[in-house]
Amino acid sequence: MAKKIVAGNWKMNTLKEDAEKLASEVVNMAKDEVPSDVTLIMCTPFLHLAKVKSLTGSATNVFVGAQNCYEKANGAYTGEIAAPMLHSYGIDYVILGHSERREYFKESNAVLAAKVDIVLENDMLPIFCCGEVLDEREAGKQNEVVKNQLEESLFHLSADDFTKVVIAYEPVWAIGTGKTATSEQAQEMHAYIRGLVKEKYGEAVAAETSVLYGGSCKPSNAPELFACPDVDGGLIGGASLKSRDFIDIAKSY
Ligand code: 13P
Fold first, then answer.
1. Could you give the domains of the chain?
2. Catalytic: which of 100, 107, 170, 190?
3. DSSP assignment of 177-228, as one string?
4. pTM, whole model, 2 decimals?
5. 156 classed as catalytic
6. Is 190 a catalytic residue?
7. What is the mean pLDDT of residues 171-178?
């Protein structure tokens, strides 16, 4: 069975005090309200990671993730953050290939393959984002686009390494737009993704792979999305900045 995961992508939001308040609230509410079989992940800006990690305390189902890392282990790359640094702070997950990184920072499938490798080499788990833009969906090319993203950035991995990857399907036209994919659209793509994983790595690996949905997911639509057989959880943007909403989404299974 795939792990149930609700991950919050805080993006470039929260000042120091906001981050500490939000993380403390999430940890406290999670203790009382979120079933222990649901994994919660807070993916914060780099600066807040160490503090948020310390705030997770003894919670066993609350983890901390970064939103990116560089593809090299160290060296003269001014302004970048390396995977070994994140690991040394006890960071558990790293989001890779978010559409905002692909668009604004021109991250290619090849660069992302190198980032996936270095995250795994440093004993962290990638949350790998894939998804099509509106033009591609309107041209009926969404499957082709997602297949290409997975093949070029993930399918070089061994089966053993692949089981450590979380996939997040985020149709770009649904991110921050208030326009959610219908549960039929989400289920269709998630089943397609699981089918590709099955073809490449076999049935057992496919069944164990968590495939999250992202794009305007909120407490009101999470129950319907999470009820889809191939949707294992969500990667939440805007709604992860409100502890109440984030926790309510995690209670939607
Ligand atoms: P929104 O939930 O704000 O649409 O963002 C989704 C997202 O990009 C998560 O990574």
1. 4-250 (3.20.20.70)
2. 170
3. SS-PPPHHHHHHHHHHHHHHHHHHH-HHHHHH--EEEESS--TTTHHHHHTS
4. 0.98
5. no
6. no
7. 91
